[in-house]
Structure formats: C-alpha cells, structure tokens
Amino acid sequence: MKYYWIVMWQILVLSTIVLSAQSTEGRYENVNVKQDWWETAVMYQIYPRSFMDSDGDGVGDLNGITSRLEYLKELGVDATLLSPIFKSPMHDFGYDVSDYYSIQPEYGTMEDFEQLLRKAGELNIKVILDFVPNHSSNESDWFIKSSNRDEYYSDWYIWENGHLNDRGQRSPPNNWISLFRKSAWTYMPSRDQYYFHQFGSSQPDFNFRNPVVVEEMKNIIKFWLEKGVAGMRVNSVNLFFEVDKDVYGGRYPNEPMTGKPNLGPDDYGFLEHVYTKDQEETYDMVSQFRDVFDAIAIRDNLTRIMMTEASTNIKNAVRYYGEGIHTGAHIPFNLALIADLDKDSDARDIKYAVDRWLTYKPLKKQANWVTGNHDKSRVASRFRPELVDAFNMLVLLLPGIAITYMGEEIGMVNGFVPWSETKDPQACNTDDPVNFIEVSRDPVRTPFQWSNGKNAGFSAADTTWLPVAEGFEQLNVAAQRSAVRSHYQVYRTLTNLRIRPAFRLGRFESLALNSDVYAFKRWFNDDTYIVVMNVGKVYHVVNLTAFDLIFGQLEVEASSVLSSRTYSDSVQANYLDLAADEALVLRMQV
Ligand code: NOJ
Ligand code: MG
After folding, report:
1. Facing residues of 81 across strands?
2. Measuring from atom 8 of ligand 1, which residue has the nearest CA?
3. Does 310 share its domain with 350?
4. Do residues 533 and 459 touch, judged by C-beta distance below 8 A?
5. Which protein residues are within 6 Å of ligand 1, measured from CB?
6. What family does the database annotate (predicted)?
7. pLDDT of 282-298, one tens digit each?
8. Ligand 1 atom at minimum distance from 132 CA
9. Residues 404 and 437 in one domain
10. 83 C-alpha to center of ligand 1: Å?
11. What mean pLDDT, rounded, does the chain reach?
C-alpha cells in the first residue's frame, strides 16, 4: 500500500513537469489562484457589418466572422463581443431591433449563427451578444400592434397625448430631446398620440413599468443564453426608465435647461436629463436581469456574464457593479480611457483617469479597460497613430479585463465618409453637410482592413456599405503579419504576456514620472514588470527607481513599433532615455 502511494506521487509530480514543459507559459501555471473564465479575459468587439463579407454583397456577415475566428485566436482573444445581429431595418444599424429572436437576413441565418458558435467553441472563444432592451425598431410587430392599441401590446411603449392649440397645431407632450437631436416625441396618427424615443424616431422606447415587457426582456436573454452564448452586453441601461409621471400628476415634467452656450433646443445637451436618465429603478432592473444569467450559470456550472453599457458619471457607472441587495453586472463598461482623455491629455491625465476608475470601483470587483468602440473615434485618430501601441499596453496590461474594438490591434485610423455617403442616423439628423463630421460614427465603422487587395480584402463587391478607409494598402493585417515589427506583433506579444500571474493577478502601482511619461508597475511574488510610455512629443530621461524596489537592470519584453529597443535588450532602471511616443514593457532582473 505504501509503495502504491509513492508511485502515485511520482506520477503526479512527473505529469506536472511534463504539462508545464509543454505549455509556453508553463512556469506560471502552478500559481494556484482560481479565476473564472471572464475575470481577466481579452475581449474583442466585432461590428458585424464591417468585419468580413462572405457573400459579396458589400456587407459583413456571420459566415464572414466564422471564417476569421482563427484570426481572433491568433491575437490571443478569449471572447468576442458582437454588435447586434438581430433582425432590424438598420436605421441605427442593428441598434433598432425588429425581432429579438431571429438573425438579420443580410447577416445570415440561425444555422449560420449556430455554426459560428460551434467554431468559436472549438477554438475556445466565447461569444457575447449585444442586447438592446431600451427600445425596439418602429418596424417591430410589437410596436405596430401597440400603435394600433392592440389590447396586449397597448402599454408596451410610452404613449402620451400632445398639445393641440386653437389653430389645430400639434406639439409634443413636453420639451424632452432625443440623443440623436430634436424632440424625443414623435406623433403616430394611427393612435393619435406621441411615442417617446431616447434615440431616433425609428427607435421607440419600451415601457419598463409594464411587467409584461420586463418578462419578455428576460425571455430574450434566456433564449440566447440557452443557445449557448457566454454573455450579453446590455445596451443603454441607464435609459430604461423615465420618471414616474404619476408622481407629477400624470404628466411628464419638462427638463430644466443646462444653459450651455452654443446649443439650441434641438441639441441633447440643451437640457439637464434629470427625468430621463439614471433613474433609481434602473439598478433593480439590472439585477433582475442578472438573476436570469445566474440561474442558467448555476444550472450549467458555467458563468454567463452580463456586461452593462451606460454613458453616465462615475458614481452611477460603478453602481452597476451591484450594491446591497442588488447583484449588478459582472462588467460595467469603463469608458474612462475614452471619455476622460483627448488629444491634449498627458501622462498625468492618464494616471488620473486610470486611478479614478480603480478608486471608485468596489475593491473586490474586476476593472475593465476600453479604448474604442463603434461609437467613438479610433485611438490613432483620437490621439495619434504613434500612440497605438501605448494604448494597447494600457488596455492589455492594466489590472482586469481588456476590451479591444476590432482594428485597434493594427492601429486602424478613422475612415473618411463624405456627407453623400453618410449612413449614421446621428450624423444624418444634423442636416448639416459640413458639421455632421463632428458627430458621425461612420468613420469608425469603415470596413476592416485585411489586406491590400480589393476593398482591403473585406468584400468582393463593387461597392461596400461604407467606403474603405484611405491608406489600407499599407495598413492591413497581411502587411503587419509579415512585418517583423508591427502593431499586430506588439498586440500578440502583449496578450501572451498578460497570461503571466503578474498581469492576471498581480498588484498595481502607477506614477506620472513627469507630465509626458506615465508608468505602472505590476508584480506577483518576485516577478515584476514596469510598463512605461512617453506620450509626449519630446525625448525624456526618466528614473524608474522612483518605484519601490525597482533598481539595476530591466529587460525589454515588448516595445512600441518605433522604439529602437527590441526583446531582451537591457535598460538601466535609474537612467532610461525614452524617445517621443516610445512605450516599453520591462521586466526586473532577479
Ligand atoms: C448605444 C450604442 O452603442 C449606439 O451605437 C446606439 O446608437 C445606441 N445605443 C442606441 O441603441
Ligand atoms: Mg455579406
């Protein structure tokens, strides 16, 4: 018996050694800290219309995505987040859903989606869907029935009488303005009433005070989770509720004016949205949704994650992590690196933006970092192309979850989409062929740049739904794959690095070494790293011994494309010269 245990013990020890020898990061795998699949995942957001077109109609589709899942694997991505793929008339490109239970035909069929899920499963890539419960399309059956006062659906949306003056002229119930400009109320002759819409008039808001609507939303979540998706990004959560009009004598009150200069009564910023945003009821609704995710997760013993998207202030944003009896979301989107930084931001601003989120976030919850999405200017355009690697280092090496918008890994730039080809409703609603560019989201939605071929390898069509961005002949995946140094190569190095415990589990400390140089330290036991970036336009010499226990030599693990340093070069902790835009990941030598 004693002999048996010795043999078993030896087998165990031997197999551990063999296992770690096989894995490239084997030496880190014996760190015994349990993490759920999502907690330090790399997520990759795909805008399906613009990723890959498989059938040559100029519009990206599901089979296109499936055919490129290996690319995601190659990047080191753990989960992909798909912008809406549900049936939609596409006034807001899928953020106006007409049938939540079916796939937009130009994107493919349910079988195509199941095939995508299967392939992703084989590659161990999780699939997360974008769910838009705040509003449907005005072409959904539900809305059509509601506008015809169908008994069951009558109360599914927010209907109000407007005003009628002596001359028979109509006006909306109150002064509320839509995020896409102009009145948030649209008159519906069939019902002789106005309906409320936070976004475009083709996006009527659901009435979340109707329990039947809430049940339906939970059913939609269940339906897709049952199909095998790993989670959902729940869109615009802080807009679910408007104030309870019964408290105001049965009429929705006007919102006060902000008094901001240069804004007219058609502009969203003209009003203080005290009655249409961030209402208390939201937090309970989010946790009711979360229960649906958890019920299925517990049954299957596999966590399904709920991500929430809300454009709001930091205190409200972190409330979505849950508090008290409210469970909240696994991942409330952190838009700090987008919202708090711009072209003029320096190292101190970066430190401030990062620390701010980490400070407000509940201590035990995971942070997440986002530098781009389908609504916001790309990093290369919002800051400058030379800072692409630095921002990928932030996203991938700060503590928590990394979320990359497709194309940021190769440093894509905003495309140019002239007024005549503009599709984004937010831009079209300006009715302004000059200034539309300030709000247009089309430039960040131009086709993904795969190669220097026709339409950048995105589509075989003669025209694509949005024009391909200029410069794709040089800036594309194929070129960066074959280059020795490229953003793509840096990105892959970073996703590889972040497997190490120092980045997955390690502690964090940061400094603005001067107004141009931001640096942070990550460490776990005796494995210590410094990520340092000169975001200024001039050369600097910095002293990294400003960090505790950093001294002697450090070795380069990754460097920005234009850096003169490469892997395994040594640098001096107390004297590090950094070129403008240079960003490095350094490892302490022990
Ligand atoms: C937020 C989405 O990110 C945006 O693209 C969309 O236009 C609005 N929600 C409306 O659904
Ligand atoms: Mg297509």
Report:
1. 45, 128
2. 95
3. yes
4. no
5. 92, 95, 132, 199, 235-236, 374-375
6. Belongs to the glycosyl hydrolase 13 family.
7. 999 999 999 999 999 99
8. 11
9. yes
10. 10
11. 95
Q: For residues 93 and 49, is the Cβ–Cβ distance under 8 A?
A: yes
What six digits make up the tokens of 200?
């475009």
Beta strands across the sheet bearing 193-196: 159-160, 193-196, 185-188
Establish if 186 belongs to a structural domain.
Answer: yes
> For position 262, which CATH number holds?
3.90.400.10
Confidence check: pLDDT of 42 > 90? yes
Claim to verify: residue 231 and residue 127 sit in the same structural domain: yes
Using CB atoms within 10 A of its CB, is residue 526 exposed (0-12), middle (13-18) or buried (19+)? Answer: exposed
174: containing domain: 136-205+244-273
Give me the number of domains the chain comprises. Answer: 2
Please say if the pLDDT value at position 408 is more than 80.
Answer: yes
Q: What is the pLDDT of residue 344?
A: 95
Flag whether 333 is in a domain: yes
Q: Best mutation site among 236, 239, 276, 312 for ligand 1, i.e. most ligand atoms within 8 A of its Cβ?
A: 236
One domain, residues 128 and 193: no
φ and ψ at residue 219, rounded to 5 degrees: -65, -40
Residue 301, classed as helix, strand or coil, is coil
What's CA 277's distance to the chain center, in Å?
21
Say what the pLDDT of residue 82 is.
98
For 320, phi and psi rounded to 5 degrees? -70, -10
Which atom of ligand 1 has the smallest separation from the CA of 134? Answer: 11
* Tokens standing for residue 74: 């190659």
In a domain, 232, yes or no: yes
